[in-house]
Design a protein that fits this description.
This protein has 139 residues and is mostly helical. The chain contains 1 helix and no strands. The protein has one helix at 2-138.
């Protein structure tokens, strides 16, 4: 009976091991189920992220187009500023030339005014002298 007892003991050990294995298998199945659920949620999150990335790509493309338009606008503005600089320089040169020319003309006009004023003063003195002479003769 010793063999029978050993066999029974082994069967009991095996039965206990089987119960433990079945229990652990149940726990593993439960853990796998939880992992499957988590993987499903992760896949959904990845899909949402992919959609977000696609939206971001579209936004980046729109921004690139806007930047290209801005670059073109800046290039046009640079050309306009260059033309304005040339125009301002031309106007400055014209203004300086006109100031110089008009300054000389004003000096000439002022000199003419002084000469006319001096001449009128001389004429006034002569008229006063004649008036005095005529008044002396009439008296």
């Amino acid at each position: 009976m010793k063999n029978d007892e050993k066999i029974l003991d082994l069967l009991e050990v095996l039965a206990g091991g089987q119960v433990r294995i079945e229990s652990e298998l149940g726990e593993l199945k439960e853990a796998v189920g939880k992992l499957d659920a988590r993987v499903g949620r992760l896949e959904q999150s990845v899909d949402v992220l992919k959609q977000d990335v696609n939206v971001l790509k579209q936004d980046v493309n729109v921004l690139k187009q806007d930047v290209n338009v801005l670059k073109q606008d800046v290039a046009r503005l640079d050309k306009s500023v260059a033309r304005l600089d040339k125009t301002v320089a031309r106007i400055d040169n014209t203004t300086i030339r006109m100031e110089n020319e008009h300054g000389a003309k004003l000096i000439s006009l002022y000199d003419g005014y002084i000469q006319n004023n001096n001449r009128l003063d001389r004429i006034d003195k002569k008229l006063e002298q004649r008036d005095d002479f005529i008044l002396h003769q009439v008296k």
